[in-house]
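To illustrate this point, we now present one chain and its tokenised fold:
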Amino acid sequence: MGISQSLDISGIPGGPVDLTLDKDDRTATEDPAVDLDNDGSADASYSGILRSGETATIETPSLATGPHTATTSPTAGPVDWTLDWTEIKALEDPSVSIDGNTAASYLGTLREGESATDPITLNLGSNNLSWGATTAGGGFSANVSWAEVSHTEDASVDVDEDGSYEINHVGTLSPGSIQTFDAPGLTRSTSQLGVATNNATEVAVEAQYCEVTQTENPTVEVNGHETSELGQLTDGETVQLDTDPSWINSGTNRINVSLGDGTLSADAPQSEVDLDYQHESVDNQTVQYTAQRWTERYNVSRTWLSDQTSASLTIPFKDTVLSIRDVEKRVGSNDWTELQSSDYALDGSRLTVQLGSINKNTEVGVRVNASRVRVNNGSIHVQEATEQGRKLDTQIAIDEWSEDSYIQLPQREDNLIAYAYNESWSGPTDEMRVTADGERRLRLPNALEGGQTRIATIPVEAAPETGDVVISVGQPSATEPKFVVQPGQTQGDDVDFTFTGAADGTDYILYSQSNGIVRDSGTAQSPLTLSDDDSDETLQFLVDEGEVGGPDDDTGGPLTLGNAPAVAVAQAQANPLGALLVAIIALTVLLGAYWAAKRRRRPRKGWLGDIASFVSTEVVLIGLSIIGIVAALRFNVLALPRPALFVGAVFGIELLGYLLLRYFGYFDWKIYGAASAIVAIASTQILVPEAVEQLLGSNALARTLPLVAAFGMYILYRAVEGWRRGQVTEIVVGGSGGDDQN
């Protein structure tokens, strides 16, 4: 590359000039630059010209480790360069791991003397640390430092110093964290608290309580009239104080509240109480109330003190009513008018009557006739009502009736079994269906429109646990009620039968007249509840260990050939000692008469002699002895436990049979063993029917009667056969000596 220059020559004007120029070529370098990282831009450069022999030293930026290519780019001229460097040790991307997981790291290069700080999380206990780097040029050191922070673990507090901890916190509590608990048992006398933690960690406990004063003997004074509640009111407790409307004055009324008796100390918190006081202006109102077992009647008159745009009157019935027969209204002196069903609404035991607009000081009367029974698909009217509080005995007339009609009876405190009697129609039958939720429906299947009947109850309640039960009453009794049980829509439902007329302290049994067994037993304690299921049978409450039957209770019904066994068993079950006494007396009389008849061929000694002969027989003596023992037990002269009586009775019967058979010479071990077994089963059935029922089923008596009858026939046959073998034919031949006469 050449450089041009301009020359100025001066001389004689017009004269010639000879000029010769000689030059020497010199080489130089202009603006040399070096690229070391091959990025196209100079990493080191010199601005200017370097002549031959001249040098320039330039510092370059730091070089990364690894190979590098140097590229020179001068503006002009050649260039020679020499690269000198000093090796510097450094770390690239160092990191620290805890238990194999990276916990801290630094992206970049750390030269000697440089450091980086990164926070890490240490676990409680031991931690295994390791470190590394992408490029480690020289030494590598890591310094882990931490500040120990103590946490509280599983803190517990004993408040009342009884050795058990009432407050427990499971887990750790970091410094500064607070947990709040209720402190049961903390009193004003508490002086210290027992504290325990896990691993002997520390915890601070602070107990706070607020001193309060209980409300005692609160008294409210209304215009000088006091009403109070004696005693203390606990926090949140509410009591209602009795007042009298006559205490209220027209105009201003003064209410004072006083608490305690004035002995509270000056530094104690003051007693406090919330008072909810209200009274309303009273309109003039009069109420006439009439109640019968099936009917409630109200005659209410009311006068409002101000105009009413939509007046209403609420009548609270004493019991839940099932239907409203009629509602009438009278305004002022006008006539009574019947209201439509849309003008009133019945909700359980509350009737609300809408009266419309009423002028002030106008008297409005409302008459309500409510029924505690509801007739389904029919109608009745009461001809003779039963007064409230008396036993139900109401006469009704049938207005409308159909096959599916029934009378729904009220659910009262005494849900007794109802029945119909004195029906005016032929073939009268009735039944009451009782459901588990207490609903009672009385059906009169053969009732006719225009007919009449009376409805009454027996002192028995039926309460099925599930489903329903159907009950009918044949001949009612108040002392030992009897009724027929049938299953309802479902069979096998358990039923509780409650005898409300049971005498306290008296033992009763629930006896099945149909099956001849005792279903349940118990002692009456106002009242008595015994249980069975809804199987088809006739049940009766009977006095246990007492007299059965009487002029009024019709125990067992009329005696017929068909029910004689059941009646006999019922009598024996209710009074086993009496039945045993009668049986032994009858047996003694029969055997004594038989024995006396055998001795009739002996010379007679008159009636006294015959009686002495009768009494002196061994059979009669044994029988009289047994009669004396049984009579002593029966009339409480000799008292023994029931199990002892049972065992003694069976053993006595067996012994008596053994002695009689041995005495008459008919003893046979086979016959005696079979007879003893039958006597034991029969005696057990009479005295403890539950035991035989468990072995032979519910119809144990019916199952054993054929066997007993067959064996009795066999005994009779053997007796007749033995008697016939014992007959001796005597032939008496008389004659006289010497003569042979015909």
Observations:
- Residues 700-725 form the longest helix (26 residues).
- Residues 547-564, 726-742 have pLDDT under 50 and may be disordered.
